[in-house]
Amino acid sequence: MELLFPDCLKCKTGKLLPLSDYGREGATIKYKAWACSNPDCGFNLRIDNGEISFGKTILQSNK
């Protein structure tokens, strides 16, 4: 089965890749964020406490 990801509407060359995380109690949160596969684009979309935010600068975690 081939996975198809949506095109990035900002740069039109990358794909939006789903990212998951863990909640405060350790439960998995699937697709908490989506990020463009094109590193030059940097578009991202995330959900925090029920609020949607997008376009924030992506930084690499030291964790």
Could you give the count of β-strands?
Answer: 4
Main β-sheet, spatial strand arrangement: 1-2-3-4
Are there runs of 5+ residues with pLDDT below 50, and where? none
- The N- and C-terminal alpha carbons lie at a distance of 33 Å
Question: Which strand-content bin applies to the residues?
Answer: 35-45%
What is the N-to-C order of secondary-structure elements (H for helix, E for strand)? Answer: EEEE
Count up the helices.
Answer: 0
Account of the 3D structure:
With 63 residues, this protein is mainly beta. The chain has strands at residues 16-22, 28-36, 44-48, 51-54.
Brief sketch in words of this structure:
By secondary structure, the chain is mainly β. It is 0% helix and 40% strand. The chain is built from no helices and 4 strands.
Features:
63 residues; mainly beta; 4 strands; 0% helix
How would the blueprint of this fold be written?
Layout lengths: L15 E7 L5 E9 L7 E5 L2 E4 L9
